[in-house]
Structure formats: C-alpha cells, structure tokens
Amino acid sequence: MSTIKDKVVVITGSTRGFGFANAESMLEAGATVAITGRSQKAVEGALSRLQPKGRVSGFVMDVREEDQVYKLVEDVIQEFGHIDIWVNNAGYSNAAGMMLDMNPQDALDMFMSNDLGVLQCTQAIMRYMLPQKQGMLVNIYGNGSFLRPASPTGLYGATKAWITSFTRSLATELKGSGIQILGFSPGMMTTDMLTSPRVVGEKARKQMENFGFVLRFLGKPAEAAAKQLVKAIGSQRKDFVEIQMFKPWTPLFGLIRVGWENLTKTGKTPEFAITYEPAYEYREEGEKWTGKQVDREISTQVNK
Questions:
Q1: How many structural domains are present in the chain?
Q2: In a domain, 107, yes or no
Q3: For residue 1, what pLDDT is reported?
Q4: Given pLDDT bands bounded at 50, 70 and 90, which one contains residue 42?
Q5: Does 112 map to a domain?
Q6: Are strands 284-285 and 96-97 parallel, antiparallel or unpaired?
Q7: Is 286 inside a domain boundary?
Q8: Of the candidates 56, 91, 54, 62, which has an alpha carbon nearest to the alpha carbon of residue 76?
Q9: Which of 139, 114, 142 is nearest to 126 (CA)?
C-alpha cells in the first residue's frame, strides 16, 4: 500500500497541466489534496473534474504574493488539520527564444513565478513543518535543471537551474531536521505549455522547424510522469532524493517507438500551435531608452 494514502498534499499551480495530473494521481492513491490556481474560475473548473476522484479542495492563490502563500498554509491546516506534503509545482515558460532576443520583462515574469514563488512557498510551509519535525517538500525541476544548455528555452532553463541549486542548498541546511526533500524532473510533457508555445526571434523560429517531430518522439502525457511522482513520494526513505525522468536512452527509445508507429500506422504527431513574434528590441525616444518593445507582427503555425 502506498504511504501517500491519507496524506494531506498541497500542490501549487494545479488547475491544469502537470499540476492537475499530479492532483489526479494523488487522489487515486488515496491522498487528500489541496489545489491552487490564480483565478476562482480556474479553481472551480479543476475541482469539478477532480471531486469525483476523492477528497479535494481548491484555493485561489498566486505564489508571487507572499501574503496569499502564508494564508494558504493557514487555510489548508484549518480545513484538513495538517499538511504532510507540499509540491512546489507552480511555474511556466512564457516564451522560447535566444537569450539576446528575449524581452527582459519575460525573464522577470518567469523568475517571479518559478523562483520567487518557490522561495516564498518553501519559507511558509517550513514555518509549519520544522516544528513538527516531519513533512515532505517536492520541488519540480525542468529543462535546464541539470545545467545543460536549454536553448531555445534558455531563460526558462535558467529559472529551473535556480530551483535545483536552491533545492540542493536547502537539503544541506535542513539535513537531520526530519524534513524530506524531493527534486523531481518530469521530462518533456505534452501539456499546453509545450503544445502552445510562443516563439520569439528568427533564430528560435528556425530551431522550431522540427518541433512536431521532437514533440512526438520525446513528449509524453503528463499523467505518466505524475504517476511516477506518486511512486517516488511513497517510496522515499532518504532525507534528499533527485529523480530525473529523462534518461540518456530516452531519445533512442523514442525514435524506435516512432519508427514502429510509422510502420504500423498507429501514431501521429501531437496537435500544437506555435505563435511567432519578432525579436525584442529597445526603442529610442529622443535621448532616453524606454525599454518598450517595437511594434510586432505576430503569426501562428497550427498543426493538427
């Protein structure tokens, strides 16, 4: 029997994508789940699909807002009595593009959600868990977490590299405290973040020419990674563990699978829609650099 059964699990950013898949898998394993999203509409929509699967509640919360994070901890404890597992899942990639082509505001937006959000959530839940001398923190890694080049999603990769460094440092600082920490890298998943990318600049556009093929042989449903995360949580015994779903042999196995699907005519390229935008540039107004983006022509490529 999974040790996640009857545990109270909080999953940030869980109204869609990998977070939603996590909530489903946790509920199926017998956990009590608290989901979060930025809007009431998103939370209610997710709850309507999750409630038939088990005990679940939803909370409107933005990880960028410190007060909202601390209130969430209080609200969940008030409703369920305690918190056993906290999953820092909230985060996103708002664009793909070469580093020098990206709008600095995009970098700031991703850092605020992906990194500052993780810091604030961790500080809030540790204030509760440390006095209890028990609990588990799960941080979701991603492309860039293991310090390999992540172009054309280099800025997103940099935020995930931050999370890895943060998680490893935290694990060292909390060793022997009774808190377990898991860094989990789910690999490439066919969530809307990946199937509806915004691509900036001509160089990134050229790199995305074979996106459909890459998505087909490397992309997997979020549900598959979510089930593996539930197993990892249920089986963890050490203070700190890192798990990477993308293995050195993953591309080879993906190519073999696609070859077999082509031979048997059983597979197809996942649907996706790419929005293309020109590279970011500063606009000079008089002698002052305003940092505003030039007018852009936007085009969209749809594959069905």
A1: 1
A2: yes
A3: 35
A4: very high
A5: yes
A6: unpaired
A7: no
A8: 56
A9: 139
**Amino acid code (one letter) for 28:** E
**At residue 106, does pLDDT exceed 60?**
yes
Query: Three-state DSSP class for 299?
Result: strand
Report the alpha-carbon distance of residue 90 to residue 119 in Å, rounded: 12
Domain span at residue 36 reads 8-195+221-252
Q: What is the CATH number of the domain that holds 235?
A: 3.40.50.720
User: Which residue is listed with tokens 């050229």?
Assistant: 206
Which whole-number Å values give the CA distances from 145 to 16, 150, 236, in the listed order?
Answer: 22, 9, 21
Q: Which of 156, 276, 280, 282 is catalytic?
A: 156
Q: Where is pLDDT greater, at 188 or 217?
A: 188
| Beta-strand pair 56-60/198-200 | unpaired
Q: What is the pLDDT of residues 231-252, one digit of tens each?
A: 999 999 999 999 998 877 777 8
Domain assignment present for 20: yes
- Specify the length of the chain in residues: 304
276 noted as active-site residue: no
